[in-house]
Model the fold of this input.
Amino acid sequence: MSPTIEVSEDLLEEIDGHLAEGESREEFIAELVHHYETEGNFLWEGYGGPP
Done:
């Protein structure tokens, strides 16, 4: 059984704005977690965090 994480509508809209064509929210979040685990930060191509 997978855990459930509740997020705000604002965060969902932000995530949706970063999805590649055909990419699911779950795939995007998995990519974020993988990148963070391997690199230790979220600063990479196309994403620099909040303005």
Remarks:
- The longest helix spans residues 25-39.
